[in-house]
Amino acid sequence: MEIKINERKIKNSLEIIFVINKNLQHTFNRDKALLKKVGFKGEQDEIFFDPRNDRLYVGASSLSHSDLRSAAAVAARDALKKEHYSSLSLATYTQKKANMTPMQGVLEGLLLGSYNFIVYKSKHKKSSIKKIYVSQKDYSKNAIAKKELQKVIEEATILAEAVNKTRDIVNTPPDDCTPKILADIAKDVALKCGLECKILEQSEIKKEKMGALLAVARASRHDPRVIHLTYKSKNAKKKIILVGKGLTYDSGGLSLKPSDFMTTMKSDKAGGSAIIGIMQAISKLNLPLEVHGFVGAVENMIGGDAYKPDDVLISKNGKTIEVKNTDAEGRLVLADVLTYAQQEVKADYIFDLATLTGACVVALGEYTSGIMGFGDKPKMLLKKASLDSGELSAELPFNRHLVKLLKSETADICNISSSRYGGAITAGLFLSNFIEEKNKNKWCHIDIAGPAFVQHAWAENPYGASGAGVRLMVSLLKNLTR
Ligand code: BES
Ligand code: ZN
Ligand code: ZN
């Protein structure tokens, strides 16, 4: 969908009107009685369609970008079902002292809310709505500058396209998105966005001695890949490493998942897919940074060649790992890719994104990502980015007692904790073993297991992959350039 600035009334357009904080004062005078009559209160995400005037009313609790993003997404989802219209139109909404203009929330919401994954539907009616017209004026006839609005439109479009790209990758079934195919997707994005792209195939991964990653990959008929995307601005102010978990399928391995837990595990590549989306967005935004995106693309399967509980793996950094559960595979893949990334690049910050643990979903719920790390600076950056982007996150604090739970009698460390509690944090602590001493305070781990895959649509997210982490990290990277 294309967004354009337009002041005149458009034929066949559905006007979307936000009712802020249940205040019907700002709706059209002659609609007030009607809205009262139908019992429309303007609660967050409540909608009312008025076919006589071609208006779609939607409630938002405030002018904050996150409330508007959610309301706009709900409105877009509803509007797309209406066959009569060829476009949407809306006024501008402004708020003084906002960390992000309300309009960015509105436009992102429209573009993110109207996403649907139809690749595998043999019969699918396309919506007739193709354009979004935005006025420079609000309903009180205040106007914002054309240039300013143009910039918001551009940014919202770049962000939404990156999120939707990530969603497309994650939603693709596992046999149509093997490690090789994921690497091909990364190459394609690199080509389109002017990124460098280096792909390590099995033989090179062996040369790099990534013993942990290779063990996870062994039972699959699809060889693993390590993807390295580089975005380098001429006036780079900071150097950043991003690492993503790209499990194209996680069956659990020999510690096989029960069937109910195995479905949706195509989404175990969400961290890696987010890295590809982030790299696309920052190159289109031209941020003055140097960013290296690494993805460990692996399939975790069963078979005669599978790695097993009791195996001891030698990771790339030399530490030995006793496998106690082959379903704790993401941390094994990340261990080697984190080691590789730090040897390849000396960075100011290191972030990893991963659908790492069910425990993180238990701890924080399905809507919130878990943030773990030692350094206050990267944690603060994430906290701010969370507020700026509207992606929910919360810290899960490390402590020295949990560290002891990873002790192994046989090897340097176990791949799971000896306790059933605190599993998101012990997974984060496991990863910390593969962060070099000098990088300890530069690193944060982000567990996106909760929000990465959506079972029931919420806010700007329809069913399926959400693209979690993309808006969060792009906000963070943008803030690093200020
Ligand atoms: N990919 C899963 C984590 C996951 C669970 C992601 C639910 C999204 C939704 C991960 O590889 C895994 O299986 N983790 C285990 C760890 C356990 C064996 C210590 C888990 O969370 O149960
Ligand atoms: Zn697993
Ligand atoms: Zn996994």
Please sum up the structure shown:
The chain has helices spanning about 30-35, 65-80, 100-115, 145-170, 180-195, 200-205, 210-215, 260, 270-285, 330-345, 360-365, 375-390, 400-405, 425-430, 470-480; strands at about 1-5, 15-20, 45-50, 55-60, 85-90, 130-135, 195-200, 225-230, 240-250, 290-300, 310-315, 320, 350-355, 370-375, 395, 415, 445, 455, 465.
List keywords for this structure.
19 strands; alpha/beta; eight-stranded mixed beta sheet; 15 helices; binds ligand BES; 482 residues; six-stranded mixed beta sheet; binds zinc ion
Q: How does this model look, in words?
A:
The chain is α/β, with parallel strands linked by helices and 482 residues long. Helix content is 36%, strand content 20%. It is built from 15 helices and 19 strands. It has helices at 29-37, 65-79, 102-113, 146-171, 179-193, 202-207, 211-217, 259-262, 270-285, 330-344, 358-364, 376-389, 400-404, 423-432, 470-480, and strands at 2-5, 13-20, 47-50, 55-60, 87-90, 131-134, 196-200, 225-232, 239-250, 290-300, 312-314, 320-322, 349-354, 369-373, 393-395, 413-414, 443-447, 453-454, 464-465. It has an 8-stranded mixed beta sheet with strand order 7-8-10-9-13-17-14-15, sandwiched between helices. A 6-stranded mixed beta sheet has the order 1-6-5-2-4-3, with helices on one face. Strands 11-12-16 form a 3-stranded mixed beta sheet. Strand 11 and strand 12 form a beta hairpin. Helix 3 packs parallel to helix 4, helix 5 (179-193) runs parallel beside helix 9 (270-285) and helix 7 packs antiparallel against helix 10 (330-344). The protein starts with a strand and ends with a helix. The model has no long low-confidence stretch (mean pLDDT 96). Bound molecules: ligand BES and zinc ion (2 copies). Ligand BES binds at residues 250, 268, 325, 327-330, 355-359, 361, 416, 423, 449. One zinc ion binds next to loops.
